[in-house]
TrEMBL record, chain A:
Belongs to the CPA3 antiporters (TC 2.A.63) subunit C family. The chain crosses the membrane at residues 71-92. Keywords: Cell membrane, Membrane, Transmembrane, Transmembrane helix. This is Na(+)/H(+) antiporter subunit C. InterPro entries: CPA3_antiporter_subunitC, NUOK/Mnh_C1-like.
From TrEMBL, chain B:
Keywords: Antiport, Cell membrane, Membrane, Transmembrane, Transmembrane helix, Transport. It holds the Pfam family Proton_antipo_M. One of its GO terms (cellular component) is plasma membrane. The chain crosses the membrane at residues 6-24, 36-54, 74-97, 109-126, 132-152, 164-186, 206-232, 244-266, 278-297, 304-324, 330-351, 371-389, 409-431, 452-477. This is Na+/H+ antiporter subunit D.
């Protein structure tokens, strides 16, 4: 199961890298989305995918899955959610002010004298 | 070691201040007073913390009273408490400077709360004893820096923030990935516990070296080491000067601190690989920095590239990893934070007076602004490390440490590049301040020159005292290095065996 997840995560990382290298800012944002999906799945996988009950206190004492990676993911998800929201608004404002979605046109030469 | 709530206060006070300030965003005067007052309180708390650590050893606080490896533990050893003190002082000076220079538009749009949030993130990153909590504090710091960078919404700010944000989103994802790998090896997140478990491994797996390099990439992107520095010159050029000061003095140094911490606490087993790589990267970083700083005629760019040079010097000391070189690095780290902040503020005053940052477009400032000129002169020779000013002791010890370990080439390069650093900052002095007075600079921005000068002089004076009082500072730095060189002291203090 871990192997399958590793392949999937690798595919997500490859797609994210490809998208991040493109010129359009929107494609880059989609790339960052995929990158954080990959990272979050990786935490889950690295914590171990052994079978167990949901980590809620149970009376009969059955073993539960590792609760720690789930807490880490939850934290990482809201953080990347906040950053993505900011990034989208920034791209929108950038489009309004700078009039382009193309990274090539955002080159800066200020101060290069 | 008993519980000590003092450890959390340098994080808590700015946090509380930020929350309060958000409710009174339109009342600028009250915001200013509260910001200055709170940052002064933070400075005093940080000073008290340094005193406590020096007398009673490492201070720890288990949040929520959960015993060490299971809860989040905040740890103030001498290194982190000194850095927290330095951060708080810089925060205070920048807020003072902002009052007279940042402008009402930004002040009404949550400038002061975001500065406080930035200080929360930096102080938290210096204090935490948990690797995932370090990630969270990194994000607090970065999120605040994104907003500070773009606040005002000019074209150049929007453009450069898009780049800065993209780079940091990627490095944050890599941080999460690195933590996930490390967790799968050691099964814990508490930094002392990780170090202990790595120490207990009978055979160090190769994957640990891979993780060490991954951490180097993550923190290298934050700390702008070669070849991961590419985002820095553009991004730091865009925002107004007080923001530039905060970013330049604090943010990259958190990356350096994280490298020092993880490489002394976790990854000290395969030094022939990890530390040698770090050494080569540090030397190239120094070279890149000086090439940039002598190439440009823009005063902001010159100081920005000097950040990169200093990062290389500090990393060189860390990579040599002897007691001497580590002492040098810690000395230089604190010196560099203070003097870079002072230089940026002085540069800001020059730009405010002349209305340009192009060195070819003004000269003869010393005729009208002699105080500014001489303060700048002192700051410049401090940066270059002329004895007895503050940059000297650190660089001397770093080079001496390198020589002792037989790293001749690297040490000689760092020695020679000091001359180029001196040239780059003296260029500003010679071309900008000397010369005849044939230009008039009307007070175009109606700024209060004297009031802007106060925080810059404050920082320069601290830097000078730091240089002249290096004997006095030594006992503190030695204690910081002791913990870095002997991780068991750290582990013992946290896990209370």
């Amino acid at each position: 199961m871990e192997l399958l997840m590793a392949i999937l995560i690798g595919f997500l990382f490859a797609s994210a890298t490809y998208l991040l290298l493109s010129k359009s800012i929107l494609r880059m944002i989609i790339g960052t989305g995929l990158l954080s999906h990959g990272a979050h799945l990786l935490i889950l996988t690295m914590g171990g995918l052994k079978k167990g009950a949901v980590p809620i206190v149970n009376g009969d004492g059955t073993p539960v899955t590792d609760p720690l990676p789930q807490a880490l993911i939850l934290t990482a998800i809201v953080i990347s959610f906040g950053v993505t929201a900011l990034f989208l608004v920034l791209a929108y404002r950038g489009y309004q002010e700078l009039g382009t979605d193309n990274m090539d046109e955002l080159r800066g030469t200020d101060g290069n004298e | 070691m008993e519980m000590n709530n003092l450890v959390v206060l340098p994080i808590f006070v700015p946090l509380l201040t930020a929350v309060i300030l958000m409710f009174i965003s339109k009342k600028i005067n009250i915001q200013r007073w509260i910001s200055v007052g709170a940052s002064l309180v933070t400075v005093m708390i940080a000073g008290l913390l340094v005193h406590h650590v020096s007398t009673d050893g490492i201070q720890t606080l288990d949040i929520g009273s959960w015993p060490a490896p299971f809860g989040i533990t905040l740890v103030s050893d001498m290194l982190s408490s000194l850095l927290v003190l330095t951060t708080s002082i810089i925060g205070f000076a920048v807020i003072l400077y902002s009052i007279y220079s940042i402008g009402e538009g930004r002040e009404k749009h949550f400038y002061y709360p975001i500065v406080q949030f930035l200080i929360v993130g930096v102080n938290g990153a210096f204090t935490t004893g948990d690797i995932f909590n370090l990630f969270v504090f990194f994000e607090v710091m970065l999120m605040a820096s994104y907003v500070l960078l773009v606040l005002g919404g000019t074209k150049i700010q929007l453009r450069e923030t898009i780049k800065y944000l993209t780079v940091n989103v990627i490095s944050s994802s890599l941080f999460v990935i690195a933590v996930a790998y490390l967790y799968s090896i050691v099964g814990t997140l508490n930094m002392a516990h990780i170090s202990q478990r790595i120490g207990l491994l009978e055979e160090i797996p190769g994957i640990l070296t891979v993780i060490a390099i991954l951490f180097l990439i993550v923190f290298g992107l934050k700390g702008a080491i070669f070849p991961l520095y590419f985002w820095l010159p553009g991004s730091y050029y865009a925002p107004p000067v007080p923001v530039m000061t905060l970013l330049g003095a604090l943010l990259t140094k958190v990356g350096i601190y994280s490298i020092a911490r993880t490489y002394s606490l976790f990854f000290y087993h395969d030094q022939s690989y990890t530390h040698d790589l770090l050494l080569v990267l540090a030397v190239v970083t120094v070279l890149i920095g000086v090439v940039g700083s002598i190439a440009y005629w823009d005063i902001k760019k010159i100081i920005i590239y000097n950040i990169i040079t200093a990062i290389g010097v500090i990393l060189y000391g860390i990579s040599v990893a002897t007691t001497t070189s580590m002492t040098g690095s810690v000395y230089y780290l604190i010196h560099d934070m203070i003097i870079k902040a002072a230089l940026f503020l002085l540069i800001g005053i020059i730009v405010n007076i002349t209305g340009t940052s192009n060195l070819k477009k003004f000269h003869g400032l010393i005729n009208d602004y002699p105080v500014l000129a001489w303060v700048y002169f002192i700051a410049a020779i401090s940066l270059a490390g002329i004895p007895p000013f503050s940059g000297f002791v650190g660089k001397w010890l770093v080079i001496q440490g390198g020589m002792e370990r037989g790293e001749l080439i690297g040490s000689v390069i760092i020695l020679l590049t000091s001359l180029l650093v001196l040239y780059s900052v003296m260029k500003i002095f010679i071309y900008g301040f000397w010369g005849g007075k044939d230009q008039d600079y009307p007070d175009q921005h109606s700024i209060s020159y004297n009031k802007l000068l106060i925080p810059a002089i404050l920082l320069t004076v601290i830097a000078v005292l730091y240089g002249f009082g290096s004997e006095f500072v030594y006992s503190y730095v030695a204690q910081a290095v002791d913990t870095l060189m002997n991780p068991e002291i750290y582990i013992e203090a946290v896990l209370k065996e």
